[in-house]
Amino acid sequence: MGDIVLPRRMFLWCMSVIYLAAFVSLYVQIPGLYGNDGLLPARWQLRYSGKPLGEQLLSSPTLLWLGPHLGLDTHTAMELLCLVGAALSLAATLVEGLRDSVVFFCLWALYLSMYQVGQVFLYFQWDNLLLETGFLCILVAPLTIIRGSRGVREHDRVTFWLIRWLLFRLMFASGVVKLTSRCPTWWGLTALTYHYETQCIPTPLAWFAHHLPVWWQKLSVVGTYFIEIAAPFLFFSPLRRLRLGSFYLQVLLQVLIIVSGNYNFFNLLTLTLCLSLLDDQHVHFWLRKFTYFFSIRPFVDQSPGFWSLMIFGSVICFDLQLDTTKNGISSRTAITYHQFNQFLKTVTIPCIWIGVFSLTWEMVTAMFRYACVCGFLKRFCGTVQWTVFAAATGAMFTVSLVPFTYLEHDSHAKLWPGVRRSYEVVDRFQLVNSYGLFRRMTGVGGRPEVIIEGSNDGVAWTEIEFMYKPGNLSAPPPVVTPHQPRLDWQMWFAALGPHTQAPWFTSLMYSLLQGKKDVIELIQTDVSQYPFHQQPPAYLRAHRYRYWFTQPKRWWRRVYDEEFYPTVHLGNTFLESMLDQHGLKDKSPSRRVFNSTVAQAMRWVRSQVRGVPAHTLIWTLIACSATFCLLQGLRKRNKGTTLTAEDAATVNDCTENLEKSDEQQAVEEEEGEKEEGVPSEDEMEAAEGEEDIVCDDEEDEEQEEDEDEERKEKDEILRKKGI
């Protein structure tokens, strides 16, 4: 693999942007989710028992333990940590020197602190993926703040390899779990006929994707298996073209998911991981030929024989045939669960060995590069660096084998017990995680959706419409990526079962009856759009409906399913019993209001962003950051071009001056020869025949001396001009 300077820089910039989106998205929702009047107050997760700070950090690694030392309650401390994380990530986005190991360690520690008290609203696979990728950034990023240098390190390809291994684990596991779950829709290749309308928050394009022909939906499932199960093995191919081909396949899949569904920063993070498959040569090719993005050539001109073999395997496994009656391609799963399980047992351990050999190759090549460095001291320091980073990379790879082998029980049992114990030690820090998205397809009989209704008299009921999730039949699906409205997501999960499986839902009903503004802003950022913004409802209830896509003018149709939550009011026996059962009543003593300078500053910042939709705020920050970086890059490029033009003009002036000096000197010499009575030209020509050999040698020597003098004079002129 070639140099990876540019892909690594692109990766670190993208990670800064993703951290920015994650922190801002979470900050906007903190009061309603974790505030003192939120659904699940974060202070319930931190029990100050008087233990030393070190023991508290070990039991629950979160910086929120420092809140009382700063004169802040847990809610305000969470806002402070989020704002610090957003500011750091924004600074890293704008300034390359801040994309540093120390900065990325701070970002990882800040997000981990949020995760520790996030409870059900923060327990998503993309939060785990961000924490794992963020920790790897600490190893990948340079240490510029301390060393003051962003130079290329010989071990960079070793640490950057961990990003490729993480991408392999993520994609391979996502493909495998679809089949190991025995979901009939995935095995029947019909999953995508349900996916677009049953996903949590679809986009408007999901409606059009949902109405594509069934044969195309089934073929798309086959393509998904091909990209997620077969293509990831090419990540470690020694052939550069195969790696680039797998890169474009992953990009294709992620882009299609982005345009058809709102999955916050998850797909953007996956695209960022894909940068580990690139090298400097290909990035330079992008910069020279931007039209390459819109060409089909990358998919077909990458070792056609190998791709033909993989396509042939797909044809055999899924019985792909031309269907002239439907003008399409018919498909069915031609393998059994037992056969796939045997395949998984066969390839899991070889996957590990592929990773071992690939990582060993990167380590050995990096070691030889350090061995070729000139100077004993540099070579010694390089060897120490190689040892440290190679050991860290090897340790991360070894620990990651535990969650990776969760895919296959027998392979997991073969792991050395010491590896599993090491994983248990670091598990609380979310350094490595198991993945597997869309394991089973939900909503086969229609998309379940919980609709909350409020009333002031118990007779006339008004639906409470959420800002993002489906509810209003005429409202088009929104586009909110990379923001994640976490309450809307949990409403989607709650609709899949009874309300007892979602204890926080009782807290939601209780908060709405009390009219808590922080919770209402989770439903509608503009509180005036909330139907009970002037007076809280006296009664609340919730029903479950089944939703389906219909015509674009109306978008949705629905039918009533069943009661989800009975009619309740403040003081209602059922509501009180559910609050007691789930421990949702606040029995802590009255909270002291902190009026420190930091607390006042946090309240002022909150007042400035209140009422601004989170996705608008995030995209504004990203757009401004990207524009600033683009203008900065163009300025540097123009400056370099201008400097080059000035250099060329200076060199030309120097050359012209030298030529004029040579001509003037020749004229002066000729005049001097005439005055001294030098022989005529005829006499000179007569003598030349006798001295040809001697003159030729002397002329060559004189010409070389003149060229050396001319070169020295040019260098001297350029040096004086400071070029």
TrEMBL record:
Chain ranges of the Lipase maturation factor 1/2 C-terminal domain: 431-566
TM annotation in the entry: 12-30, 76-95, 102-123, 129-146, 158-177, 215-235, 247-266, 305-322, 343-361, 386-407, 612-634
GO BP of this protein: protein maturation
A GO-annotated cellular component: endoplasmic reticulum membrane
Acidic residues biased stretches: 665-710
Cell compartments where the protein resides: Endoplasmic reticulum membrane
Superkingdom, natural source: Eukaryota
Region (Disordered): 656-723
Membrane topology: Multi-pass membrane protein
Keyword field: Endoplasmic reticulum, Glycoprotein, Membrane, Transmembrane, Transmembrane helix
Main location: endoplasmic reticulum
InterPro entries: LMF, LMF1/2_C, LMF1/2_N
Location of the Lipase maturation factor 1/2 N-terminal domain: 123-284
Basic and acidic residues bias locations: 711-723
Signal peptide start and end residues: none
Pfam families recorded: LMF1, LMF1_C
Biological role stated in the UniProt entry: Involved in the maturation of specific proteins in the endoplasmic reticulum.
Protein family: Belongs to the lipase maturation factor family.
Name by which UniProt lists this protein: Lipase maturation factor
Organism: Scophthalmus maximus (Turbot)
Lineage: Eukaryota, Metazoa, Chordata, Craniata, Vertebrata
